[in-house]
Amino acid sequence: MIKTLALPSKPSRLFGPNIEGLKRGKGYRVKMELSIAQPDDWHLHLRDGELLQTVVSHSAKQFGRAIIMPNLKPPVTTTTAAVAYYDSILKALPDNTDFTPLMTLYLTDKTTPQEIKLARESGVVYAVKLYPAGATTNSQDGVTDLFGKCVPALEEMINQNIPLLVHGEVTDPKVDIFDRERVFIETVLKPLIQKFPKLKVVMEHVTTMDAIKFVESCEEGSVAATVTPQHLLLNRNSLFQGGLQPHNYCLPVLKRETHRQAIVSAVTSGNKRFFLGTDSAPHERRTKESSCGCAGVFNAPVALSIYAKVFEEAGALDKLEAFTSFNGPDFYGLPRNTRKITLKKTPWKVPESYSYASGSIVPMSAGESLEWLPTFP
């Protein structure tokens, strides 16, 4: 629900509203509030140790649930490890926080059908993540033979109705980094859907019009996609303007403006196949600003503000709630959140960084002013 209020731009000496001024819009500023069902984050990196302790509160205070990525060191390849990680997250949560981590398993060439059954029976594992070996952060233990060694696990995932979450990039060094998603769709994802038409698949953090067209061509409810704040707001120029910008570097890498526009168009159209997944991926500042900077954007503190900005600029604020709060749980077969949050259009400044014992983390849009501020009951 969008609520628009007219407030005097200066304090009035009158006890009542100036109706004529309100009608003419003279001397008044417009204050907008947007009430939506509490969102969920369907793609989140919380890390572990000190980083977990530092970043978890940013997601927990605004999202009801989050799909937690398993690419730790070592990766979360077993249900036992997933349950242990689940417990660590709960212990790191602030008091009086109603936040549920939804765990994932890290798919490998050795993942067994029995492990998939255990995952379903655990009550805490909701998906399995496919990382092509070497595709992104801590993916060196990922899949090398999807259509050979992983078939028994994929078949059991269909039996257990567990979605496969896909990092959609090939890792062949001969393929241009800006083409890795497109090539993955043609050589891996299309054959995967053809071979396993009953497998539920989420193409994570889509970045190209090729991915948009592919997801839109698939049956609704069987293939979906998450979309990040950075891929909605930024294009690849943002990596180089004013010098190299390491805090805008992520994988999949930012693409051309034409691709960004295609993603915005799809997301703001109301298409149920697309939903919120921040891919918030914190790294300590020194590892981002180094000779070999890590890939990942820490966007948890600003994600909802940026999503609202993009939808407002597209004239689609009425479709924001479905994207943030309905499409994800509907795809996963989970109930929608009943708690409400409010987004107020009021300027606020993003901190330059967030400090913790071992260093600091730089958020997306650091030092900038954003216009939508989430508030919570």
TrEMBL record:
Its EC number is 3.5.2.3. GO terms for molecular function: dihydroorotase activity; metal ion binding. InterPro entries: Amidohydro-rel, DHOdimr, Dihydroorotase_CS, Metal_Hydrolase. Keywords: Hydrolase, Metal-binding, Pyrimidine biosynthesis, Zinc. It catalyses: (S)-dihydroorotate + H2O = N-carbamoyl-L-aspartate + H(+). GO terms for biological process: 'de novo' pyrimidine nucleobase biosynthetic process; pyrimidine nucleotide biosynthetic process. Residues 41-348 form the Amidohydrolase-related domain. Pathway: Pyrimidine metabolism; UMP biosynthesis via de novo pathway; (S)-dihydroorotate from bicarbonate: step 3/3. GO terms for cellular component: cytoplasm. Belongs to the metallo-dependent hydrolases superfamily. DHOase family. Class II DHOase subfamily. This is Dihydroorotase, mitochondrial.
